[in-house]
Amino acid sequence: LGAQAPIDTARAHRTLGEILLLQQRTPEALREFQQSSALSQRLQGVQHPEAAMTVGLIGITQARLGLPSAADSLQRAISVLASKVDSRHVMLLRLRAALDAVNRAM
Question: How far is CA 6 from CA 13, 25, 31, 37, 70, in A?
Fold first, then answer.
């Protein structure tokens, strides 16, 4: 499959996670995002925007499951993305809104 195969596998896990999240199959979505994140961070590094977005999706999913680790995941993703993308980037805005919601729920 070539050099792109591992990152394509990470992206496929992330996409499947997003589909599962839309179907409200939240625990399954979390597993897919975690697999994607592990691959993506290993291949691209933790500071890569794509890896950070996946960590953010983990945080959103953890929040839906009521897990206390959600705030940390969201904050880590926001910290990376804030220095890598425009401040109006849709994912950055989505993560900030999710972190605000988590903080209000505490």
Answer: 11, 25, 17, 12, 27
Q: Which two tokens stand for residue 32?
A: 């897919």
Tens-place pLDDT, residues 51-81: 999 999 999 999 999 999 999 999 999 999 9
Encode the chain in three state secondary structure. CCCCHHHHHHHHHHHHHHHHHHCCCHHHHHHHHHHHHHHHHHHHCCCCHHHHHHHHHHHHHHHHCCCCCHHHHHHHHHHHHHCCCCCCCHHHHHHHHHHHHHHHHC
